[in-house]
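TA notes, week 10

Several of you asked for a full example with nothing omitted. So below is the full record: C-alpha cells for the whole chain, then the designed sequence directly under it. When grading your own attempts, check the secondary structure regions first.
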C-alpha cells in the first residue's frame, strides 16, 4: 500500500514537471510530433465510437484522434499545465471530455480504443496498468501506443549520474507484457532515430523544455563533467547527436 502511495507521488512529480514546461513543449517536441504522425498510421481504419487518449499532453496526437470523428473522446493527462495548453490550442468538440489524473490508478469508462503517444515510459508498473486498461476496452477493441526503447539516450545515460523515472523496456518486453495482459499484438515496430544538437547543453535544455529532463538536479561541476564526457562520445562536425529508439504497438482485446 505504501509503495502504491510513493508511486503515485512519483507520477505527480512527473506531472508537475510537465506542467512547468508545458509552455515550451510544442516548440521542442519534434520527436514526439514525428511519433504522433507515425502512430496515427496504426489507428484502426474503422472509426472507434469511444476513444480514450492517455497522456494527451498539449494535443500533438489528439488532433489525429479528433480527425476520426468518434462519438465520444476522453482526454486524460496527469498534468494540468499540459491540458491547459491543449485547450488554448485546440478547440475541443462537445463530444470530448477531459479526465485529469494519474492513468495508472484512475477508473475509466468502457471504450473501443485506448491510445497514447510517448506516454507509457512514465508508468511505474506497466504490467499492472496494461491489465487495468484491458478492463476498459470492449471486446475486439484496440490498444495503440508508442513509447521509447532502451537505446534511447543510451550515451547520455552512460555518462550521467542523474536518474530519470522513465522506464525504457524493449520491444520484446512490451510485447510480452501486452500478451500477458490478455491482448493479441497485431503490430509492433521498432525504429532508430538520431537527432543533432549544437551542443550537449542544448540537448539537455531540449529535454528540460519538453519536461523530460532527469528529475534530480546537479551541481555546475558535475554538469561540466557530464558535458565533457558526452562531447567525447557524441561530438561530430554536425553537432552532438542523440540516439532514440522508438517503439509502436497495436493490439486487440480478443477477450
Ligand atoms: C512526452 S509527453 C507526450 C504528450 C502527448 N501524448 C504528445 O504526443 O505530445 C508525456 C505526457 O504523459 C503525461 N503523463 C505522464 N505520466 C502520466 C500518468 N501516469 N497518467 C497520465 N498522464 C501521464 C505527461 O503529463 C505528459 O503530458
Amino acid at each position: 500500500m505504501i509503495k502504491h502511495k510513493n508511486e503515485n507521488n512519483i507520477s505527480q512529480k512527473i506531472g508537475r514537471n510537465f506542467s512547468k514546461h508545458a509552455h515550451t513543449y510544442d516548440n521542442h517536441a519534434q520527436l514526439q510530433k514525428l511519433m504522433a504522425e507515425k502512430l496515427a498510421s496504426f489507428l484502426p481504419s474503422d472509426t472507434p465510437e469511444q476513444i480514450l487518449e492517455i497522456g494527451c499532453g498539449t494535443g500533438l496526437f489528439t488532433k489525429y484522434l479528433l480527425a476520426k470523428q468518434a462519438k465520444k473522446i476522453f482526454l486524460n493527462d496527469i498534468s494540468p499545465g499540459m491540458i491547459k495548453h491543449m485547450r488554448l490550442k485546440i478547440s475541443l468538440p462537445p463530444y470530448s471530455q477531459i479526465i485529469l489524473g494519474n492513468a495508472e490508478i484512475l477508473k475509466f469508462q468502457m471504450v473501443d480504443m485506448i491510445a497514447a503517444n510517448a506516454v507509457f515510459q512514465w508508468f511505474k508498473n506497466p504490467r499492472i496498468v496494461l491489465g487495468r486498461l484491458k478492463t476498459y476496452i470492449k471486446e475486439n477493441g484496440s490498444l495503440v501506443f508508442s513509447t521509447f526503447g532502451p537505446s534511447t539516450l543510451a550515451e547520455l545515460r552512460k555518462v550521467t549520474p542523474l536518474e530519470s523515472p522513465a522506464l525504457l523496456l524493449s520491444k520484446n518486453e512490451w510485447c510480452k507484457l501486452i500478451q500477458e495482459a490478455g491482448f493479441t499484438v497485431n503490430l509492433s515496430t521498432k525504429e532508430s532515430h538520431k537527432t543533432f544538437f549544437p551542443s550537449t547543453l542544448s540537448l539537455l535544455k531540449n529535454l528540460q523544455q519538453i519536461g523530460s529532463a532527469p528529475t534530480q538536479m546537479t551541481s555546475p561541476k558535475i554538469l561540466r563533467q557530464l558535458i565533457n564526457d558526452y562531447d567525447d562520445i557524441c561530438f561530430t562536425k554536425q553537432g552532438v547527436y542523440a540516439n532514440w529508439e522508438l517503439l509502436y504497438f497495436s493490439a486487440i482485446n480478443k477477450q
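Residues 1-5 have pLDDT under 50 and may be disordered. Use that as a sanity check on your answer.
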